[in-house]
Each structure stands twice: as structure tokens, then as C-alpha cells.
């Protein structure tokens, strides 16, 4: 069941069209990703959904509410993580959570939230003394302290080290599993691929494609490549004759087979029939990165 509906959303700033006729729905309990390069219109889109910006035209409904008209009610049910924190330097973690909790009718049990976010030992630490990762986790706690039905997380892991990124991803999955619908704004392919149930690829204010991460990869119809070194000499025609194979390339002893479908199985069973062993076998699948290039004509370059 969809709990967010965006129809032909359009937002311009003077001459700049930031969001151009964008439509999508978000289902209850999913992690919905909005992926695109800097300036693509991601933040403007989600801020219209949150009621923080007024669309030039189009309609939006969140949890059955109009983000403009019902902004006060929506604030009670939608938690957002700010792109950059605006907390005062000297506020402690506990004070910040107490303050934010006071805004909500049904605040979460925030000490438990701190536990989940591995921040319990920082509750009396001032904001300015937190590391980048701790600040990020606090901003997630603040987005969740009102027990929201929907959480909007914008550039979740920017500036985090690899371990902190992975911990944050685990956390977002826990949040989704607890029943919160998540909108995730990102320009990281790996993050989108790992976390999102469905994903809108946004480029120049428009949705270029919307699907599951694997659906997007499939749509891009990028070919796979199988690389190996045959244990004994091999005639190319053995492979070029297979329906899955579009090309066979050689580089010294190394062979690269390009094709689609179940290419690995086709190649390996053909070699096995000839009693040829494929040494140093490696398969290259197309990635979401390839899909983005195929579907938008350009590469995300954070
Ligand atoms: N308040 C504003 N006034 C004028 N132009 C704006 C304003 N906010 C955004 N823009 C412009 O609208 C376009 C989309 O910006 P937006 O911040 O929505 O993109 P984004 O995809 O979130 O980018 P980023 O990842 O850099 O935050 C950009 O060209 C930006 O310069």
C-alpha cells in the first residue's frame, strides 16, 4: 500500500527548474531511494514531500496528509535527518534528545534509541566533542525521536569511514524492519544498491528510471564478461557458436567472453565437455553504476 504519492511535482527557483514533473509512490515499510548526482533535485523533491518547500505545481500526499496544508500534523509523523546539523556546539546529546522529544506527542524512549545507535556513553558529551560518525548517528536519533511512521534520511553516510557506513546501513535496515518507511536520499551507488527496496534515478530534475536495484541493472542490459585462462589451447568457434555469447576477445593467454543470459554456465559447461579447465576464472557483472550511465547517459561523480 502506498503511503506517499507524488504527482507531477514541479519546482523552479527563478529560471532554474530544480524538479521537473516528478511522480512516484512509496509503499509502506519500504526503503525508497532517490539517487542522483549533486544538483539533480533530490533535496528539493524530499523537502516538498516534507512540507519544507512549496512546490510550483503538482500534488503530494504523505500518510493521507497534504504537506503544505497539514504541516503541523505531518511533523508529528515524519522524522527528517537534516543534511547538515544545526545544533548548538555546547548542547549535550541528552539535552538535544530531550529538546527534540518535547516537540512530539508520542516521543520514543530515547535512551533505548541511543543504545541501538551505540551512543549511550556519549549522552553527556557536548555536540562539538562528537566525532563525525557520532554526529551522524545523533542526527538519525533526532530523526527517530518522535516515533515517526516515515523517516527521511538525506546523505546519510557522507563523511563516514567504511566501518561507520556499514554500521549505519545495518541500523537503517533495523529501522525499516521495525515498521518505519524510509526515504533515503543519496549519491552513493553502493549504499542505494545495498539498502533500497526501490530506487528512483534522478537526473536534471527528472526521474530517469524507477525500479528495484536489480531491475535497474537488468534494464540497462549491460553485458557480462567472463575472463579465464584455458588449461589447453581452445578454438574461439567453440564459444562464438553459443547463443549467449556475443564476442570472444584474447589478450595473450587470457580469454574474455562477452555475452548475456546465463553466460557463465554456457561457457563453463562447453569447456567441461572439451575437458578444458578455466583457470583464474572471473565474472564481471554489470553494476548499478553501469545502469545509471546506460539510463541517464552520464556518471554520478560525487
Ligand atoms: N533555495 C534555492 N534557491 C535557488 N536555487 C536552488 C535552491 N535550492 C536548490 N537550488 C537549485 O536547484 C537545483 C537542485 O538542487 P537540490 O539541492 O534539490 O539538488 P540535490 O540533488 O539535492 O543536490 P545535492 O546532492 O548537491 O544536495 C540545483 O541547481 C540548485 O542549485
Automatic annotation (TrEMBL):
<dbReference type="GO" id="GO:0016887">
    <property type="term" value="F:ATP hydrolysis activity"/>
</dbReference>
<keyword id="KW-1003">Cell membrane</keyword>
<keyword id="KW-0046">Antibiotic resistance</keyword>
<keyword id="KW-0813">Transport</keyword>
<dbReference type="InterPro" id="IPR003593">
    <property type="entry name" value="AAA+_ATPase"/>
</dbReference>
<dbReference type="InterPro" id="IPR027417">
    <property type="entry name" value="P-loop_NTPase"/>
</dbReference>
<keyword id="KW-0547">Nucleotide-binding</keyword>
<keyword id="KW-0472">Membrane</keyword>
<dbReference type="InterPro" id="IPR003439">
    <property type="entry name" value="ABC_transporter-like_ATP-bd"/>
</dbReference>
<feature type="domain" description="ABC transporter">
    <location>
        <begin position="4"/>
        <end position="229"/>
    </location>
</feature>
<dbReference type="GO" id="GO:0005886">
    <property type="term" value="C:plasma membrane"/>
</dbReference>
<protein>
    <submittedName>
        <fullName>ABC-2 type transport system ATP-binding protein</fullName>
    </submittedName>
</protein>
<dbReference type="GO" id="GO:0046677">
    <property type="term" value="P:response to antibiotic"/>
</dbReference>
<keyword id="KW-1278">Translocase</keyword>
<dbReference type="InterPro" id="IPR017871">
    <property type="entry name" value="ABC_transporter-like_CS"/>
</dbReference>
<keyword id="KW-0067">ATP-binding</keyword>
<dbReference type="InterPro" id="IPR050763">
    <property type="entry name" value="ABC_transporter_ATP-binding"/>
</dbReference>
<dbReference type="GO" id="GO:0005524">
    <property type="term" value="F:ATP binding"/>
</dbReference>
<dbReference type="Pfam" id="PF00005">
    <property type="entry name" value="ABC_tran"/>
</dbReference>
Amino acid at each position: 500500500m502506498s503511503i506517499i504519492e507524488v504527482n507531477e511535482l514541479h519546482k523552479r527557483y527563478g529560471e532554474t527548474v530544480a524538479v521537473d514533473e516528478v511522480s512516484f509512490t512509496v509503499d509502506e515499510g519500504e526503503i525508497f531511494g532517490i539517487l542522483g548526482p549533486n544538483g539533480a533535485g533530490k533535496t528539493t523533491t524530499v523537502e516538498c514531500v516534507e512540507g519544507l518547500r512549496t512546490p510550483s505545481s503538482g500534488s503530494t500526499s504523505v500518510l493521507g496528509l497534504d504537506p503544505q496544508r497539514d504541516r503541523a500534523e505531518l511533523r508529528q509523523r515524519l522524522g527528517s535527518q537534516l543534511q547538515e546539523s544545526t545544533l548548538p556546539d555546547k548542547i549535550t546529546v541528552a539535552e538535544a534528545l530531550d529538546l527534540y522529544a518535547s516537540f512530539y506527542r508520542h516521543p520514543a524512549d530515547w535512551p533505548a534509541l541511543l543504545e541501538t545507535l551505540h551512543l549511550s556513553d556519549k549522552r553527556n558529551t557536548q555536540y562539538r566533542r562528537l566525532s563525525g560518525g557520532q554526529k551522524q548517528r545523533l542526527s538519525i536519533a533526532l530523526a527517530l525521536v518522535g516515533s515517526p511512521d516515515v523517516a527521511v534520511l538525506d546523505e546519510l553516510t557522507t563523511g563516514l569511514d567504511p566501518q561507520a557506513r556499514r554500521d549505519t546501513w545495518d541500523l537503517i535496515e533495523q529501522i525499516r524492519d521495525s515498521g518505519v518507511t524510509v526515504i533515503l536520499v543519496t549519491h552513493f551507488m553502493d549504499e542505494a544498491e545495498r539498502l533500497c527496496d526501490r530506487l528512483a534515478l534522478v537526473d536534471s530534475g527528472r526521474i530517469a528510471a524507477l525500479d528495484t536495484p536489480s531491475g535497474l541493472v537488468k534494464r540497462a542490459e549491460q553485458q557480462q564478461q567472463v575472463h579465464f585462462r584455458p588449461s589447453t589451447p581452445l578454438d574461439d568457434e567453440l564459444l562464438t557458436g553459443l547463443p549467449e555469447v556475443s564476442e570472444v576477445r584474447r589478450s595473450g593467454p587470457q580469454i574474455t567472453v562477452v555475452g548475456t543470459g546465463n553466460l557463465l554456465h554456457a561457457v563453463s559447461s562447453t569447456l567441461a565437455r572439451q575437458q578444458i579447465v578455466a583457470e583464474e576464472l572471473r565474472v564481471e557483472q554489470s553494476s548499478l553504476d553501469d545502469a545509471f550511465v546506460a539510463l541517464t547517459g552520464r556518471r554520478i561523480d560525487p
